[in-house]
Structures are given as structure tokens and as C-alpha cells.
Amino acid sequence: MQKLSENMEDYLETIHALSREKGVARVSEIAEKMDVKSPSVNAAMKNLADRDLVIHEKYGYVTLTPQGQKLAAAVQEKHDVLYRFLTEFLMISPEQADQEACSIEHAISEETFDRFVKFFKFLENSARTQKPRLLRNLETYLKTGKKVTCECERA
Amino acid sequence: MQKLSENMEDYLETIHALSREKGVARVSEIAEKMDVKSPSVNAAMKNLADRDLVIHEKYGYVTLTPQGQKLAAAVQEKHDVLYRFLTEFLMISPEQADQEACSIEHAISEETFDRFVKFFKFLENSARTQKPRLLRNLETYLKTGKKVTCECERA
DNA sequence: AAGCATTGTTAGTCTAGGCTAACATCCGGG
DNA sequence: CCCGGATGTTAGCCTAGACTAACAATGCTT
Hints:
Two copies of one chain form a homodimer.
Chain A: H1 6-22, H2 27-34, H3 38-50, E1 54-56, E2 62-64, H4 66-89, H5 94-104, H6 110-129, H7 133-144, H8 151-154
Antiparallel strand pairs in A: 1-2
Helix pairs in contact in A: 1-2, 1-4, 2-3, 4-5
The first copy, chain A, binds a DNA duplex through residues 5, 7, 26-28, 36-44, 47, 58-60.
């Protein structure tokens, strides 16, 4: 099985999101959400159906197969972690973070994502236990460019 | 001027690298480094020359215009920071880090990159001043999955 | 139950960016 | 000088993934 293209991953992700939001996914909704026209969606559904990632009955709904589910969930998970990193630690606006997570999510290997998740949890943990030191220092630094040495270091 | 595609950014980056490594960039070298055939390079050079990003004399060398330089340097900078983050903090192997930096570099906006650089410097600074606490804890965590609360917090 | 708006599908076209095969130019060695 | 191999270019083709225009199915509304 050939690796999925970024575009096809995006389709899966969108179907996944729609299914969770509205229960089902329809061609027109997918088109609208992805800002493409319905014939493009149609072609993509044919592609994904051929790979057994979706089921698309003529003039009917689109649903993910278990395989498609799994892939979509993996992409979604990357999206979510990236989004949280961008908003919580880089303080990017929600809209922009969402958009960028959407690009970056396709560029990251499983291996790297796995480590990044750990890294992220570590940061969050530090932010919690050292609160508000580490995070506040970072925030100050991001805003002012001034380095703040850790208080516990100076002590 | 239309935004550059990822592929064209890659061409610029490769020309930039070759120019620095060997002084000049030739079609065959670009092709080899990017693992494409020379007619593809040719088409890309025509594209980039039309945008005034490179100069490509017939049967001759390829050089970056000042504009091309600037763009290439920006891409390169993203690559470098990402590479360092991946190797130093996520402990990804040099080869894989290089490869992934190559994908991720195209997916990041100027805004986000800017903040990420600050974030990265902050991390490096913490790693230096708190050495070896923060980094060692992260390393332990990445390897074992065990969370380690900051020593200065427990004190 | 029929008609029409909505929705989905098909056919055909376009662009980016690959490729191969064939042709053109360049340059070093005889 | 000139010839052959290396290098560069052109022409023509392919695929992914978008689009428009035209056609088909569905289903709500009366």
C-alpha cells in the first residue's frame, strides 16, 4: 500500500471531524470545509475508497472504514498536540495555530511525533509543577526578548 | 508575486547549499542532490529565473540573485533551527532530523518560526543555566517515560 | 404523485512537477 | 583541430489534484 498523500490525509481528517461533529459526512460538507468543489471531493473519495479507507455509496454518505478511522485519528492526534503547543507555548492565535498545525501535521514522522508528545508532556508538567516560573519566564521572553534566568538557579 | 511552492523552495535551498559547499551550482549537482533528473532541474530553473530568483546561463552555472539569496537563507535558517531542536531536544538521529527538518521547514510561517526561535533559545538557555537539570530530566523522560519533578521544586 | 431545488456525479480541461528519449553543446585528449 | 564522452536542453508524456459545465439522482412540498 502506497503512502497517503498530504491531500488524502486532509480528506480523511475532514471526514473524521464531520463524522464526530454531525454524525455523518456528506460530499457537500467535505467540499465546504476544505474549500474545494464537489467534483474534487468525488475524485478523492474514489481514491480513498480504492484504498479501503472510506465507504462511499453512490449519492450517499461517506464513512470511514476501521482502517480509515485509525489513520484519521492519528492525523487528528498530531493536529491536536501541535495546536496545543502552538497556542500554549508559542502563544500563536487559535486560528493561525489551527492552520499551521494543519500543514505541520503532515510533515512529522511517527517517531518524531512520539518524542514530541513526550517533550510536550514534559513541558506541561514543568509548567504545572514549577508554575509559574518556567512558563512565565518563557512568556516574558517571548514578549520582551529578555532572558530571565531561572529563579531557583540564582538562589 | 505568487508564493513559492515547497518544491521551488527546495531548489533554492539546494542551490544555496551547493554554492556554499563548492562555490558554484551546476544542473547535474542539483539533480543529484535532490534525487531528480536534470530535465526537472531545468524546468525548475526556468521557473525560478522567471521570478528573478536565480540566474541560469545556457549550458552554464546557476547562481542566486540577491532576492533568491534572501529567500534561500530564510529557508536554510528554518532548517537549521529545526534540525537542532530535533537532534538536541528530541534526540532524533542526524540523518532523520535532516530529512524531517526538510519537510517541516516549509510548513512554518514567519510568525511561528520567529516565536519558535525564541522558544528554542529559551530552552537552550535553560539547558545551560540549569544544566544538567532540565535537559537531563527531559532526557530521562524521553528514554524511560518517567516524569521527574524539577529538583529545585522539591527542595 | 409530480416538479423543482438541492446534491452528487461524470467528462473534460488545467497546472505543477516529475519522467524518458532524443538532440545540442562543451571540453579534454589524441 | 576534431572527436567522443559528459553535461545540458528540448519535446513530449504522465500523475495528482484542482476546476467548470453538463448531466443524474434525491427528496421536499405541495
